[in-house]
Amino acid sequence: MRPQRFKTRITELFGIRHPIVAGGLMWLADASYVAAVVNAGGMGFITAKTFPEEGRFEAELDKAAKLTGGKPFGVNLYMSNRPEQNKDLPAQLEVALAKGVRHFETAGLPPTEFVERIKEAGGVVFHKVATVKHAISAVSKLPIDAVAVVGAECGGHPGLNLIGSIVQIPLAVQRLDVPVLVGGGIGTGSQIAAALAMGADAVLLGTRFLVATEIWSHHLIKQRVVDAQETDTALVLASLRNTFRGIDNATTRAIADLEKQGVTAFDAYRPYVMGTLQKEAYTVGDPEKGILSMGQACVFADKIEPVEAIMDRLVDEAVAASGRLGGLMAADAESAAAE
Ligand SMILES: Cc1cc2nc3c(=O)[nH]c(=O)nc-3n(C[C@H](O)[C@H](O)[C@H](O)COP(=O)(O)O)c2cc1C
Fold first, then answer.
1. Average pLDDT for residues 208-229, to the nearest whole number?
2. Total count of domains within the chain
3. Domain shared by 83 and 59, yes or no
4. What is the rounded average pLDDT of the residues 308-321?
5. Are 211 and 238 in the same domain?
6. Counting atoms of ligand 1 from 1, which one is nearest the CA of 106?
7. Is 24 near ligand 1, meaning CB less than 6 Å away?
8. What are 190-202's pLDDT values in tens digits?
9. Per-residue confidence (pLDDT) for residue 332, from 0 to 100
10. CB 83 within 8 A of CB 89
11. What pLDDT sits at residue 82?
12. CB neighbours of 83 closer than 8 A, spacing ≥ 6?
């Protein structure tokens, strides 16, 4: 693990070495993955929704506590706009708090009650959104510690406005006073240095880690990510106001056909969007099955290797990029800056 090279409001708030945070990954962010991120100096979040079976979530938290040797790790609570999908979340939050988890990533609908409960229990929570407008609204309504803003390039839910990270990062920093995590398309250390230079407090990654050894998915899925170019993702379901970015595959093409025909009934899409299809795809290694979230940073995920190796590369590249920027400063500019 690399020594600490960057100190920000988020490294301080989370008590982590690097300003690199791994967001929740449905089906994939389990104890092994999250512990690997924590042990490599970042912060990770076990995706509560992945473990609906009685006792399974609890067991996953116990496993993470063991693997991290007591270091803090987090839990992701994603609030769907389909209420039946959120029914386990209140009990899972209580289980997490009882087990001593104090770091939370929330996403989806504004989680007012969850945030209040987390703060009452002394926890740290950030809410993830896809536009600065939503971030401002979340900060004004929720007692959150920080906010994460993800740009159009991200895997999963890029929102409806599709604002790219190059615009969104400085805008978020300009308009928000709380610590800001930024994500969407980040897969190299030079982007991390750029995000920090733009004023961000940390980066939030998903896609770059899909090729980590500790992720349990079948190696054929990881190989698909390794092979993917930046042009190999597809955006679907904008017509249902629930845009997803995932692997461009047979499923996203079938969905795109329905959207082109103007079909709006959710039932027509159900056979393609069922979450269980993703789990099956990850298990058997079929990258054509289901909407498999993946962002444009897939192009930077160039080999299957442990989380720590990925993190070390990111930190080394970020340091090199910062050095390059320092080295580019003209002597006049340097002395002017010193005055
Ligand atoms: C496979 C995959 C699954 C994801 N599942 C979730 C999820 O369940 N909950 C959530 O809040 N975000 C989820 N995300 C979003 C990530 O936490 C993160 O915000 C996003 O990946 C950052 O952008 P990037 O993909 O460009 O790195 C997922 C992303 C991917 C790639």
1. 98
2. 2
3. yes
4. 98
5. no
6. 11
7. yes
8. 999 999 999 999 9
9. 65
10. no
11. 85
12. none
Beta strand segments in 112-201, E: 124-129, 146-150, 180-183
Quote the domain boundaries for residue 137: 9-215+304-334
Residue 299 falls within a domain, yes or no?
no
Whether 339 is in a domain gets the answer no
Average pLDDT rounded to a whole number, residues 300-313: 98
Domain identity same for 32 and 146: yes
If asked whether residues 327 and 183 sit together in one domain, one would say yes
Residue 335 has pLDDT above 70, yes or no: no
Domain at 152, CATH number? 3.20.20.70
Q: Are residues 16 and 136 in the same domain?
A: yes
- Among 186, 207, 298, residue to substitute to test ligand 1 (most atoms within 8 Å of Cβ): 207
The residue whose CA is least distant from atom 12 of ligand 1 is 24
- In the predicted model, is pLDDT for residue 339 greater than 80? no
Q: Is 75 in the pocket of ligand 1 (CB under 6 A)?
A: no
Ligand 1, pocket-test mutation among 154, 209, 232, most atoms within 8 A of CB = 154
Q: Is residue 295, in this structure, part of any structural domain at all?
A: no
229 in the same domain as 156: no
Residue 158 is given by DSSP the state -
pLDDT of residue 334: 61
**Ligand 1 nearest-atom number relative to CA 49:** 8
- Give yes or no for residue 333 having a pLDDT over 80: no
| DSSP class per residue in 55-118 | THHHHHHHHHHHHHTT---EEEEEE-SSGGGGTTHHHHHHHHHHTT--EEEEEES--HHHHHHH
Residues 174 and 161 in one domain: yes
pLDDT at 81: 86
The continuous run of DSSP H or E covering 205 comes out as: strand 202-205
Q: What whole-number distance in Å separates Cα of residue 14 and Cα of residue 230?
A: 31
Q: Which of 20, 21, 25 to mutate to test the pocket of ligand 1 (most atoms within 8 A of CB)?
A: 25
Is 140 a member of any domain? yes
Say if ligand 1 is within 6 A of residue 295 CB: yes
* More confidently predicted of 216 and 84: 216
Q: Is 287 in the pocket of ligand 1 (CB under 6 A)?
A: no
Q: What is the mean pLDDT of residues 98-126?
A: 97
